[in-house]
Automatic annotation (TrEMBL):
<dbReference type="InterPro" id="IPR055643">
    <property type="entry name" value="DUF7219"/>
</dbReference>
<protein>
    <recommendedName>
        <fullName>Isopropylmalate/homocitrate/citramalate synthase</fullName>
    </recommendedName>
</protein>
<dbReference type="Pfam" id="PF23856">
    <property type="entry name" value="DUF7219"/>
</dbReference>
């Protein structure tokens, strides 16, 4: 069993505390936004290191952006 798993998870998937106006919807969107930012960071690093082409990185980020926009709609946070 890997006793370092919690430490690895904290390093690989950092989460910041939510400090905005509390509502379940805002909290959920914040979690979605943090996940979006983390995934975009990974994609950028893969592209920078030549593991993804610029077009592949763009397409993956575009899909993530659409998912984030959908979460805004689903959480009724559109203004």
């Amino acid at each position: 069993m890997d006793n370092n798993k919690p430490d690895k998870d904290k390093m690989l998937y950092p989460r910041s505390s939510y400090r905005g106006e509390f509502s379940p919807e805002n909290l959920m969107f914040n979690a979605n936004l943090q996940e979006f930012a983390q995934k975009v960071s990974y994609i950028c690093n893969l592209e920078t290191n030549g593991k993804l082409s610029a077009n592949q990185a763009y397409e993956q980020i575009r899909v993530l952006w659409k998912e984030l926009k959908t979460s805004i709609k689903n959480l009724n946070l559109e203004q």
